[in-house]
């Protein structure tokens, strides 16, 4: 089931965010993500977030700022079961255009978004990390 985030979901969601970033972005120091955690947790609480829930457990979430996907994260044990696709497809139902940034070194994410119809619009650099990234876009 996909539903809007509730305040009581915040700790689970923030934990998924931290674990996923450490795993997916092993080209950045773990400490970078740990240092970002308090700020990001506060931002998540303010954002438009939808969660995928199964048997009372949050399996993943997507955070949005208008038409920009700020993040799509799936609990490690739930990956490969269509959770990310479900969250993204649900989001596409309410938007005509979506954009996001993905690190170039995170090829599994880049390939996932391409399989979901996103195109690389522009290569750039994340100003916070200095890592190369892509602006990816999707249009209905």
Automatic annotation (TrEMBL):
<dbReference type="InterPro" id="IPR000182">
    <property type="entry name" value="GNAT_dom"/>
</dbReference>
<feature type="domain" description="N-acetyltransferase">
    <location>
        <begin position="1"/>
        <end position="140"/>
    </location>
</feature>
<dbReference type="Pfam" id="PF13508">
    <property type="entry name" value="Acetyltransf_7"/>
</dbReference>
<dbReference type="InterPro" id="IPR016181">
    <property type="entry name" value="Acyl_CoA_acyltransferase"/>
</dbReference>
<keyword id="KW-0808">Transferase</keyword>
<keyword id="KW-0012">Acyltransferase</keyword>
<dbReference type="GO" id="GO:0016747">
    <property type="term" value="F:acyltransferase activity, transferring groups other than amino-acyl groups"/>
</dbReference>
<protein>
    <submittedName>
        <fullName>Acetyltransferase</fullName>
    </submittedName>
</protein>
């Amino acid at each position: 089931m996909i539903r809007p985030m509730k305040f009581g979901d915040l700790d689970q969601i923030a934990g998924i965010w931290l674990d996923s970033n450490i795993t997916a972005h092993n080209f950045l120091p773990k400490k970078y993500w740990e240092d970002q955690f308090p700020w990001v947790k506060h931002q998540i609480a303010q954002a438009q977030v939808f969660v995928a829930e199964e048997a009372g457990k949050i399996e993943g979430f997507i955070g949005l700022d208008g038409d920009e996907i700020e993040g799509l994260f799936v609990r490690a044990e739930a990956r490969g079961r269509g959770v990310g696709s479900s969250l993204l497809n649900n989001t596409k139902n309410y938007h005509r255009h979506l954009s996001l940034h993905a690190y170039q070194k995170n090829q599994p994410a880049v390939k996932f978004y391409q399989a979901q119809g996103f195109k690389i619009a522009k290569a750039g650099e994340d100003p916070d990390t200095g890592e190369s990234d892509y602006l990816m876009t999707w249009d209905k």
